[in-house]
Design goal:
The chain has one helix at residues 2-7, and strands spanning 32-36, 38-43, 47-52, 55-59, 64-76, 80-95, 99-114, 119-137, 142-151, 165-173. By secondary structure, the protein is mainly β. It has one domain (2-13, 34-173): Porin, CATH 2.40.160. The protein has an eight-stranded antiparallel beta barrel with strand order 1-4-5-6-7-8-9-10. The chain is elongated.
Length: 175
Amino acid sequence: MKKLFISSFILISGLSFSQVAIGTPTAETNKWTFGGGLGVGFGSNSYFNLQVAPRVGYRLTNDLEAGLIGSVSWQTSDYYKSTMFGFGPFVNYYFARSFFVSGNLQHFFINYENKFYDYKDDQQETALYLGGGYMQQIGNNSFMQIGLMYNVLYKENSSVFSGGLIPSVGFVVGL
């Protein structure tokens, strides 16, 4: 389960909208940001993974954003199935309007079932992701973000995750 989870985890996001009244100046007055993710993975032994990860943030300054992120993941294969819920705070710092550094603390609740051995288990794990990346403007206040995050709390033999490094691709509206 560990190796398949992270290897299939690439965050592809898109969510939300913005609006500007016709005839009014386009000055930014809304400090809320919205985004999210949708990930899908396939593999051997009928492996399938679906993940949804919404987020909402607030711009504390033009370059600093903080908020909450959630995550729900469903995985299944011929040998196991699992459901994972996660949530927690995040903070992003943007510089040169093209790059960002990020921190994200999530606490996960994992329900796991091994179909072959008829074994069930409930676990919890906390992950602290640190990283950054590049962002490209795709609209007035919409950006695509591409980056890498590393779970600094990852321990190889005791984690439900297969690795600490996570690539990400996403969209954010409201920056």
